[in-house]
Fold each of these.
Amino acid sequence: MKLEEQVPRNALVWIIGTQFFLLLPHLSRIPWWVLVLYVATAVWRSMVYTGRWSFPGGYVKTSLTIVCFGGVALSYGTLIGLEPTVALLLIAYSLKLIELANQRDAYMVIFIAYFVCLTEFLFSQELLITLYMIVAVLLNTTSLVALHQPGQDRFTSSTIRRAGSMMLQALPLMILLFVVFPRIGPLWNVPLKSHAARSGMSDFMKPGDVANLSLSDEVAFRVQFEGEVPARRELYWRGLVLSKLDDGAWRSLRWRDVPGDQRRLAEPELVGDYSDYSIIMEPTQQNWLYALPYATTRDRGIIRSNDFRLVSPVEVQDQKRYQVRSWLEVPLEDDISDWRRGVDTSLPELQNPQTRELALQMLAEADGDPQRYANAVLEMFRDQAFFYTLRPPLLQGENPVDQFLFGTRRGFCEHYASAFTWLMRFAGIPARVVAGYQGGEINPVNGTVIVHQFDAHAWNEIWLQGQGWVRMDPTFAIAPARIEFGLEQALAEEGSFLAETPLSPLRYRNIGWVNNLRLQLDAINYRWQLFVISYDQDQRYQILNRLLGSVGQTQLVFLVAGAWALLLVPVIITMVWRNRGPRLDAATRLYLDFCRRLRRAGFERSGHEAPAAFAQRVAADRPAWAEELTAITRCYENLAYGGSSDPEALDELKRRVRTFRA
Amino acid sequence: MVSAALSESWQRYRERAQRRWRRWLNRRIPPAKKVTLDQKRIFIFPTRIGFFFLFTLLVMLVAAINYQNNMSFALTFLLINIFVVTVLHTYGNLAGLTVHAVRASPVFAGQRAEFEIMVSRASRRQYFGLHFDWLKQDSAIINLQDRQEQHIKLYLRTERRGWYKPERLRLDTVYPLGMLRAWTWLDLDIRALVYPRPLASGDLPGVSSDQPDGMAEPVPGSDDFYGLRDYQRGDSLRHVFWKSVAKGQPLQSKHYTAYADRSVWLDWNLFEGLPPEQRLSHLCYWVLEFDRRNEEYGLRLPGVTLEPDSGENHRLTALRQLALWGSPDGNSAVTSMRAAA
């Protein structure tokens, strides 16, 4: 093989290094054995390099490919969808390594790597991931540079510096293109992320689900209020309304559960104060959005459901930004329909008999007044020995609520919310579980409210005549600190807050500089999401209008082309002017003009012939010109060699040359 | 008929285009012993891989649009602009280099002539993957990292005797990314002297010598035995002094005075009736043969006479005459030779 087609050792090392670097952020969403494959192919290729093994034969390669395809199909149960597609791409990226023999193969691997960079962004566009991917692109570009440094047997920093400087030079124009490139809608449907990647709440709540969510310190969404942030105990971010009991779990009503005439939202009358805010939500792969009650929005493509929530018609695949106006004092659903009353009071007849007895007894004690009855239940939770814990005992058997209320008495918010609903429904009061988040952390740096997964919460709404749906939070009765200060304080005694993620910076909130750093980073992240990740056609129009006034598409094309031209000015100028030789002084130009005239008359001056000698030669042939020839030559020699820069002499030369007729 | 006419006119057109191209190149990059590469002399265009990369970018752009993914847009735009920036870097990997003609060694027609060139840089900038390609016959790829200059030897086939001036040398590079190729065509004003292809002719027909009875091939016993000398390759086995071999001594051959004394004239007319090139080839063979035997010989060509002599310089002069005989350069070679003598 020719030297220029070989893959230098350095390039091979860079390529393999890039592979592992790119695999790393994908690891959580691909089968574990892909990592094994990466190690195996890297070892194999190194062995080929050292000459101990040879490239695998076609038979081996084919069977490996088939096995890997089968493996992906088995691991995911399908080959359709974004994750299996990315897994296949990563596998191809790795398998290509063991047939990387010449430069062409190396190009393939490197170009696939650029594409793998892109796939990572489909899952996360966070600032840290973006920084990580910048390093990945740098490594990959370095492999490409190393590929063109033939015969290099030692590593030099020049390789990576070259790649880095190219990236830096490309950066300004990248930003320009990013801003001006139109954001049109999708051209066709593409494989979407699978539902396995769903995060946050689900619309199916078993005891223990919210507690599980509380173990995570991930951000669920960030909120920026336009005015003042409402009091913490008002921050009930409604996400789901769970009305139906299903196998001991609460779930929301599906579309088909709701009769057609009930699907429409009964718009309440807007009274009292409102609060404006915008939310940037992390992707959940779910449809519902979080907001304070009663939420209205002017964003296109957001639906308001009949239980006063905001719903996105498409699953939230990427970070989503939406603007909300919440009317905190508006009563929800003054008038309850029979259908809804039926749904929200139904219970299995035979379960939890003790609870039923308790409910009827307490209702009697409250003289049948729903409000007094509900308060009595909350008082019971507060005054009796109920405990708020992240580590409740498991509830088993036919009558879990009985077991909870009369036995264990230890639970997390979903246990209390569930028990409360049972107690209300046994008393014939419409009641439901609401799932979402409660509270949030105010970042003093930029004033955003950061809502984490551990702020996940479940509470209740009961319907009272004249008041509509009223929020009831049994957790507040048992552990007021949870609502007033947050989960950490509520669990201070137990010490179970984020106990399973010892490295979470949130655990070190008491250390000043750690907390400061975390909040600063979060503020940067928020800006990143606001201005970069959610940059869209509207923002584009705004920016372009502000910077350039109203411009058309054609002008933008010219703008980009102009910027490119500007970048390439050194080359372009010289390309346009390259026909010109070195710049000559005026005298020489005139003399060369004179020589051209003589050439037309058949006298060619050869390269080494001095002007005087040339003049003599021509004069010998054409004595008639002799006088003019010598005059011009003398003039030129004086100017060129005599050191004279007399403008008159130049004028004389000009005149003589112009009037010379050969 | 029509196709023949067409192909003929196509041929004519191509030749004309090539001529025009060469003329244009000669103006743009005039022949010189030393060429410094600058914008005037460097061409640049995307490679196949470059176009493939652009296609990959198109796919990435479509993915970014379909997923409405801003970071994917950013990545695609970064790569597009890296491609644009590569123009400067690829160009920079030739600019500032100077290519010098060093020497061309003479060869016999049909052999490959060695051309030595040198490439040097003015700055401390590192150059990588400089690919020299000469007429697709020989190529070399070098880096200029620590050293300021590097010599390269390239070998080109020769066919006819005389001065061999190869077509332009192509120097190209795809560094750093392989997506663009910058190249230049260099005429280093370098030529190699090509001697005629030596052609054995059996015995020398009718050796022309100062002594009319002179013979090129001495018959053993007819001349005086002069002495022994170490056997040299090519000595006739008949002259080997076998007695000493039998005694275990190194091979020696008997040496006859005729070789040393008689000066032979290698004459154009010895090969009466043969075409000129063949005559020159035979003469070339005999020049080498006599030089190997360390005998004196003279050379007589129409218009050229070289007095009998022996030795390295004499051989080179004789070969040069044979190489250049009949060409305009040949006469000047002779005159300069005489002037030197």
Note: Chain A touches chain B through 62 residues (CB under 8 Å).
Amino acid sequence: MSAEILPYLIIIPLFGAFSMPMVNLAGRKAREAWAVLISGATLAVGSWVFYWVYEKGTVLYTLGAKSPFGQANFPIRIVWEVDLFGALMVLMVTFVAFMAVIYSLGYMRHDTGLDKYYTLIIILELGMLGIAITGDLFNFYVFLEIMSIASYALVAFRNDTWEAIEAGIKYMFVGSVASSLILLGIALLYGEYGTLTMGYLALKLSQNPTIVGKVALALFISGLLFKSGASPVHMWLADAHPAAPSSISAMLSGLVIKIGGIYALARIAFSIYGASVSVKTVGWLIILFACITLIVGNAMAVIQTDMKRLLAYSSVGQIGYILLGIGIGLAAYGSQTGEIALAGAIYHTFNHALMKGLLFLIAGAVIHQLGTRDLNELSGLAKTMPKTTFAFLIGAAAIIGMPPLNGFASKWLIYESSALFNPVLGAIAIIGTAFCTAAYVRVLYTFFGRPSERVMEAKDPEKSMLWPMLILTIAIIVMGLFPWGISDKVMIPAAKALENQLAYVATLMGGG
Amino acid sequence: MNCVGDDMGVIVRTAARATIPLIGIFGSYIVAHGHLTPGGGFQGGATIAGAGILFLLAFGLDEMKKRYNKNLYSALEGIGGLAFLGAAMLGIGVAFFYNTLWHNGPFFSGKPGTLLSAGFLPIMNLAVGLKVFTGLVSAMAGLALYRRWRE
Amino acid sequence: MIQFQFITAFLLIVLGIYAFLAKNNLLKLILALDIIDSGIHLLLISLGYRIELNEIPTAPIYTGYETLKSPMVGPLPQALVLTSIVIGVCVLALAMALTVNAYRHYGTLDVRALRRLRG
């Protein structure tokens, strides 16, 4: 079992964040170089972890000792357990976070207090990586809170504007209540079963499923749906994501709601509760929320005039698709349809991180050049910012699901499985896409329209902002070239790894 | 009017002068004995930070501004975190957070119950104590130093 | 035997949720969050206190463990509560900073005034 590389995923960002106040004394160049270096090193480690898990299978790492068993005959130590799904999330987080840090170099140039900004962005990355790799429920809560606190602070980073403060306060209250619900669920589970290790908890739950376990599951689902911005409680998302600096919006929309919401939900529903509750009921519950989210998010996106707000509502809509995939995966647990739906959900999670990251970075570039994000004032941007508009065209086409790009494959998997599972759900998914198309076509229509006077002096942004956008565009196009190859080689095995609760438990119990 | 900007009078100042060292010593005791008795880095650090907050309240903001250096406190907080991380990484050959000092290390490996025992725990307690003290004082000073908006 | 600690924890959580929904002052909302957290902490810490064989457990100090007659309370919930308290302090500090900023921008602590973002 060679997993010595895994703790560096946490050590490197932690080291970078703690040493930032001292590096800051050496001036702004040192600070920026340090932030890029740290996130780049994390990307390297993340890629290595993904490669390792892809080649060798699930990795188990015990904190503080060789094996998770002490002198007892059950695991008592904190463990980190990474299966292919987790490894894919690690790769996604490190990649998009690296792009966001590079982008910040140019985008945040005119702000003050940047040492805190870079510290927080690295801590945000650390929290998300921790959630992706952890195999212990309380450890998961700690990382969730690290991530959440960093994102509250980053949403309110520009505290001289009322918008950031209001959005930050709303986000913080909703997020804190959601965290409390999750902590309550963890407390109930600990009181009932006396363990916090996910794999062992799954074992105990399947031996003796009680009502307390179900109450805890209800608390987890409600808390995590809050955190992922599902529809009845999506209002904080539409406020918080536009108010943050654009590089942070890209991370919030692309990563935080997925890792802190979708990934955690899937992990808890499949790896802990997979064998001990009626997955059909839970699946239909999630499908219900998914359908509401899908319609509301995409429909609200159509009527927005604020570019970043449109993108935020579109995120709500896309979360609906991912939840739909997870829900069908639960409701059709064990069948071919469920597997396809789950693979589609995982694929779409990854794709949406790239696409929404790209779109928010573009919105940031537009704001940086023109100082406005009102769509009515942005007409004719294609003339003066051609590269940016091209990147937006690619991103929008991908998020709608145009065939040669990566969004097509993942959406197709979700449509196919939902139509197979229940045709009504397929129809709802298509309606959502129609709204989504309308929203993005409207933005593109504005961009290609007659140039207004205001956009005449705009030009493409500087290199440090342009390169992340171009790299993300290239990633989208390249992933679109091999849609089914990626799906068969990575996404289906990831879905199988997530579904296979027995293997998850066996890795833990056999690790000693 | 007595807002945070000025001190709280001679009685409070004298009492504070007498109690601040005692609070500091008690907090240091809690930090240093964290691995033996209830308490530890966070509780002790918070207690010492209580002394700092008492100083701020009793002597006023102007006096605090003279003694408080933002960069120094940020750097100390970072050093606390780095020391914690370093202590956790001592046993990286076996596992992250492996207590190598206690199992085979040269010091801090005494009989359980004595001060020089428990491996990296005393180091971690000191590091966390430093970090919590500087962090809480910085947070308090940050709130107090906030730009007045009605004056 | 009635376990009053669980009832108290439940009451605290319900009280906190009530205050969170019914109050409009930002500071009171922060207090409500703290009350919910306190309830959960009480629940967690009382999970470690189990009376077995009519023996009252003592504090988990491992020094002189061999000579100890009565059982100890579980130390793990205490560690969990401590971690959770630290997180609570972070959230509290951040909430206070945001509240100060909100007062600067809006001139009031009423959450009903924080409604400029719409649509």
Note: Chain C is about 60% helix and 0% strand.
